[in-house]
Predict the structure.
Amino acid sequence: MRKGEEEIYDNSYEKEIEYFNESHFLGLNDIKCGDVLFFTLNVFNNDSKNSNFRSLARIIKSMFVSCISVTRYNDCQIGFLYSNAYGNRKDFEDWFCKVYDLASSRIIIMSGKRLRVRWFYDWANIMQWYTIFRKVFVPTEAFYYSSILYKYYSDYLDIIHQVVKNKVKLMVTLCDAHSIDSMVTQYCNNHGIKTATLEHGFMTASPVLSLSKSDYFLGYGQCILENALSVGMNEKKFIKVGMPQLIGTVIPKELIINSDKIIGIVCNGSSFSDEDVEMMKIAIEFADKHKYKIYVKLHPGSDIKEYPGELVEYIDKIYSTDISAIEFARLVQFSIISSSSLFIEYLLHMYPVLHYPSKIGTYNKEKWCEVNNSTELSEKIGYILNNSIEYYKIAYDALKYYTECEDVDSKYKCFFDKFINNSRENTNG
């Protein structure tokens, strides 16, 4: 699955997902479980699906450990869910916190851990789910998906308990296309609770857009709106608010160029490893000619062992989750990025960024910073070093297409305040 985004998320399990959406899963009334499992089926498969022991251990753990923590502020009219699907993404958590801080009345449900005991009648649900999965998968895989669904279900019950208990009027998720977020969004939709989801990265024809079930999609700007409309999203649902990374920050008035001669490569991970390899080759050839060092920032969850050893030996430093992508940008003079949404984030921080054209075409219209080989890289770097003011103007104009740049804080706050005020008016009326 590599030739394009449609192949990375090619929905190889389309018929199975349709079947699961139409099936009745005990305890999950009116929840389309096929949509809940979209990414689990298409992206997150691994060897543990063939281990009954691991599946059983997952179920038992889910009966005794909840993967959420809860914090309440004021009258909790707005709920914010940061589920354990993103527990290892500190970068997501940082800007998610910026968003919920703008809502004066909120309950925050975050990835975490706390003890609790589920009743053993959950086994009846699990076995009924197993019979549904068994019609599609071999026994070990059917048990694996039953255990995964139970892990989601266990947290889902705790989350909706908080939603009902606190009489939440609006539920905001980080990404309503992912497992638990999808469950909670569907529950809220079915019970008259308004829902909103956040954009968490740059998207083209991503299923994150087509699978979104929330009443509102809080997106970056015009580019994402066009992509959303192309997959059938209602324009009234889309609200331009800007990148949350801009909350509490100001776009620099000039380009920020490190004096150290270091070229940085921002990797996209295993699904895009061929593009990562090409960027490495370009950087290595350039560095050899111009006496630059090479630093690499790995995608979370990927490993440098995934890349050819004959290229890795030329890399001076390798970073993973030990530093953030922005901290990495500060270390290098220039960064090369292909399809990662960090391209936009580097622009808004005004760190010099160059683009290797991706096969999914994410930023391929940005010819002004495109590099296909070491010669073009040398030319672009020379231009930036000698024309930083002009580069800044071009970068800022490009940035405005991808994200709202002005008053981002107030755009989020106005959305939340309007909802809270409307809720209070309805309650008082």
